[in-house]
Write a structure and sequence with these properties.
189 residues; mainly alpha; 6 helices; 0% strand
Length: 189
């Protein structure tokens, strides 16, 4: 793999900060007892956003970045932003979202944008080709990445992402359990 500054920043700054922000977000939810306030519905939104950003991450790790992959990343970023707006609009009506949690959310929004910008910079000819500009022809095919990332890096990134995904699943389970208890207390009505 040819390593340049954009790849190093993506691999060793953006992705770790993004993952740490995901962990901090989960801790904020745990601290505010999300299971008793906005409950499983908000947790489902968190899992949806995790999937919306997880798919482009997997694409960046395993696929050749071309016009198709860049277009997919752009669409998923925009979908993630819409879901993020939905999530915060829902959550702030039902629970306190502290200034710290709001700051964490800013990282969860800006890190994917920064990742996308660095990928576009790194694969500029294919980005231009996506819009019919530049000298390269847009490639709209799925191929394994010929520039293999270090296996230890891939394993570590996937393990950290799986841990955070597991924490969001735990959050959903807490919410479902609390909703079940509340339903039982109300007599199932």
């Amino acid at each position: 793999m040819t390593v340049d500054s954009t790849a190093l920043i993506l691999m060793y700054v953006v992705v770790p900060v993004w993952l740490l922000a995901g962990l901090a977000d989960w801790l904020c939810h745990r601290t505010t007892y999300i299971e008793r306030t906005s409950g499983s519905r908000e947790s489902r939104l968190h899992l949806l956003m995790f999937a919306e950003m997880g798919a482009p991450l997997l694409g960046a790790l395993f696929l050749e970045v071309n016009a198709l992959v860049i277009a997919f990343m752009i669409v998923m970023f925009l979908v993630h932003e819409a879901t993020s707006f939905w999530d915060v609009s829902y959550a702030t009506r039902l629970r306190r979202v502290s200034p710290f949690e709001q700051h964490v959310h800013s990282f969860l929004e800006i890190m994917p944008l920064l990742a996308l910008a660095l990928i576009v910079a790194r694969y500029w000819p294919q980005f231009l080709a996506l819009f019919g500009a530049g000298e390269e022809k847009a490639r709209f095919i799925l191929r394994w990445n010929p520039e293999k990332l270090p296996p230890l890096y891939i394993a570590g990134t996937l393990a950290c992402a799986a841990l955070i995904g597991g924490l969001y699943l735990e959050e959903l389970a807490r919410g479902l359990k609390a909703e079940g208890r509340a339903l039982a207390r109300s007599g199932g009505a």
